[in-house]
Amino acid sequence: MRVGLVLLLPMFLLTLLSTSCRGSAGGGAETQADIPKGHGVLMVLVQDESGRPLEGAEISIANKNGRAHTTKSRQDGRTKGVEPVADNPFSVRVTMPGYQPGEQIAIELLEGKTMSVTISLRAVP
Fold first, then answer.
1. Rounded to an integer, what distance in angstroms lies between the CA atom of residue 64 and that of residue 41?
2. Does the bond joining 89 to the residue before it have cis omega, within 30 degrees of 0?
3. Helices and strands (DSSP H and E) totals, the chain
4. Whole-prediction pTM value?
5. pLDDT, averaged across the chain
6. Fewest CB atoms within 10 A around its CB: which of 2, 67, 75, 101?
7. Superfamily of domain 30-121
8. DSSP E strands, the chain
9. pLDDT of 72 higher than 80
């Protein structure tokens, strides 16, 4: 019995380690090798005040020059953008019918890294 436990423990730890290193960025993990040179990943989570993910929120990601692109949050409330770090800083503005807009500014991305931003929207009274 003890021999079986000793053999299983390293496998358990390896599985635990590989699971904890995985990300949830768009259905797959982003590794430094997956991110183009000179770029960083901006992961945005949109939720309501209670922490419930909001699907279909309009997310606008703008760079320091004001150039922006817009996307929608998925069912899990997330979206991601792969952005050139030379365009730092970035701002994120989120709108959704029935909610007050949310915004986060001065987001600095690092080359080869993922920056996560959570924006909580307040329901319109």
1. 16
2. yes
3. 1, 7
4. 0.73
5. 81
6. 2
7. Immunoglobulins (2.60.40.10)
8. 39-48, 58-62, 68-72, 78-84, 90-95, 102-107, 114-121
9. yes
